Amino acid sequence: MNFDWHELHTNEFEENLKFYTSTFAVNVRKLRGRNGKRYALLTRVGEPMPSSGIVESDVNQGWKSFIKVINVDLAKQKAIRNGAMEVESYDIPRVGSVCELVEPSGSKVSFIQYDPR
């Protein structure tokens, strides 16, 4: 199991962006997120790829982690067979496919399958 991506969902986008960029050595690339919300990719200074993101969001405040899978549909089917319930599935252009579930204990879990590059 590989927790591969982390996002901070917040309704205090600029304040959180300022905190993390002032506290850690990261570069920022701002983008338009899903549903027109603001999104920022955070890349550690000296690293080639982003390691996390900050998402403007009115719901589900806090950090969210994604488990990297080879096939999101198969991982989702297996999780559902083992008692999970699907919340939402969606594609992120130029990134990949995501499935959000609630596992049997009630905790949320998200799978991500990256598009081939």
UniProtKB/TrEMBL annotation:
InterPro entries: Glyas_Bleomycin-R_OHBP_Dase. It comes from the Bacteria. This is VOC family protein. It comes from Shewanella maritima.
